[in-house]
Amino acid sequence: MDNLGTIGTTEEQIELMDVATNFCRDKSPVDKVRALIDDDLGYDPDVWREIGELGWLAIAIPEAHDGVGLSMAEVVPIAEQMGRNLMSTPFGSTTLAAQALLAGGSEAQQAAWLPKIAAGAAATLALREDNGDWDLSNIEATGTVSGNSVSLSGKKQLVLWADSADLIIASVKIDGAVGFALIERSGLPEGALRRETVIDETARSYEVNLDGVTVSADALFDASRTRETLEKIELAAGLIHAAEMTGGAQSVIDYTLEYLKTRKQFGKIIGSYQALKHPTVNNYVEYEKARTHLYSAAHSWGEQGRGEVAVRMAAAQSHASYSTAADRAIQFHGGFGFTHDCDAQLHRRKAILSGALIGDAAYQRSKLANLLFD
Amino acid sequence: MMADKPSAAELKDYAEQADAWFKENTVRDPGFMLPLTFMEVSTDQQFDFLQEWQRKVYEAGYLGASWPKEYGGGGLHSDFQRVATRAMKNYDAPIMLNAIGNGWAGPLILDLGSEEQKQKYIKPMLSAEDIWCQGFSEPENGSDLGNAQLKAVKEGDEYVLNGSKIWTSLGDRAKYMILLARTDFDAPNKYAGLSFFLNPMKIDGITTSRIKKLTGEYGFVQTFFTDARISADCLFGGEGNGWSMAMKTLEYERGAKVKPVGGFFVKELDVMEIVELAKNSVRNGKPLLDDPVMRDKMTQYMIDIQALNLNNTRRRMPQLMQDKPMGLPLMNKLARTELIRELTEFSLAFQGTKAGYYVGDENAVDDGYWHRSYLNSFSATIGGGTSEIQRNIVAEHALGLPKTR
Q1: B264 C-beta neighbours (distance < 10 Å), count
Q2: A-B C-beta contacts closer than 8 Å
Q3: What is the ipTM for the molecules in this complex?
């Protein structure tokens, strides 16, 4: 097999890992995470501003557009620590929007938007529709070109942080082919956004009604690069969610270990019972595998073929690992595990939303099988 | 002393030499069935062939390449041994017979032995002149090693041994045994009464009886000690230090600590062999690989294997090991051996009606290799501490959970 990824790190990755570990731990203690569940915005605007000032949104943006000029590999440790601390902000969706612009945007579109994003403006992608399909090309929303303007119609779902985003990049069918339209949120008509109730209460998601929205023709992506844009979006999303889920898996395992080390039943610390100990070790082993795959995916990012295999392995392993670890965490906390107060459910819900957004472990494996066996 | 880290060019030259040597010298089919690991050496024919093979590899410099020159090693940086080991795997070279010597006893003696012990034991160990075996498990104490009861009573400048050890791979052929015995029955705890010996096997009072394995092969024995007298010089690590010596040995055995010598594993975990098997298998008139369930499972195994192989690289990257530094080293044996068991079992599912055949039947797929591999895979999930014990070890030493009592 020569299409398997390898593992390695960059100095910048390691530096960012250290900074992100401290920042996310300090800025996102769990009581704050829980307080933000009831907040309309869903994140702390001061923290978001600091993230912009730290330059984290600029990491994978080229220097020519005021970015740092690194890659998604260096975004990974940040997303990992955000996932570990359940820190919800528009960081992921904004990073993905920037990657989409880099893959499919014109020089003018990149020049208009990337410096703003690098400086801290939020953006997001509108890809999903009512059919529930993970195939990004299976869409029905349309853009009809007439002279210099494009009128859009249809509904996009699961658009994260749409109310905070300055820019929404929506996939629409144009003359029967998938294309992308850049929509300024300020130009959306009243009532175009409906807040969705999503399973992960720490996230904010919207349905976007495109009916009656018009953009100019130069707000469309380059149609000749649609295929690579779709691929890039899918892989960047896979990588960033894999990072969040890996961090989440680590966190929920540590949370459970703390309980197993302190809770007593039948006169013994319950962590001494093999019925709890052994499956916890199994979950831990699966988490370590996920983390290894994550850093392989980061290291192999951008490599033809290998990159996709490594990212899908990371996405599959992290989703499976996060889901199981959080599921068992609920069970191992007993009655308390069934309550909203137990943090295990925050993780279990987050894993479900991540899988819903990028495709669950089985979906990633079916894509991988085609790459590996055919 | 640690040899200098080689340049990429030096390693490349060495790899080419090693590849050429193994290509030229490897006999893959000697005309009889070779054992899958050192634990299934059943016949004289197998033993003689493998002893000669190890000597040849050693003399060519590809075994013990990174061990100290003054004791018979090659004196090179360990990267050279990794390259040589890879060449063995590339050419499907037969296993190294003296795995206990090379893998556990040798590193232990190099780390803690006296100058005299290193001079005496290391070179003939590498050349397979002296075969080693391990006397840890007892009939009544398998995983509960610390409860070993074999008695070693000091009389003058000798110890008198009485008791029995079991699951002794190569026990009927070995010249030496690393032996865990009880020298003090009144010690404050069971661990404190243990001592560790480099025990000669070919002496009066030691007999062995062969045990037939579930595969139908032989390869391990029960060893009986009846007033066997050994010199007090055989004591290793000081009286009462047996538990600590045994634990150090297990670190090598379980792969938590590595002093690469080469040739221990028969093969890399390689799912592609199973993919080939699947490609050649038919279900409902179609290639088995078209079956979505099989594809999904196979893909998960690829993910697992890739993770374990990359874990070996990651564990040498301290920046990615900060959180639970002992996690990856301690989970290695558990994860790898369980995966091999699952994977070899899975391979049987491809064989359709032919899964019914075993070694020896002309209709058996690959001469029954997969069945033998599956049945033999339990040697690794049970030996060296069962997977259940390994989970306790990971839980207690990497995750900080309280001991199970």
Answers
A1: 18
A2: 124
A3: 0.94
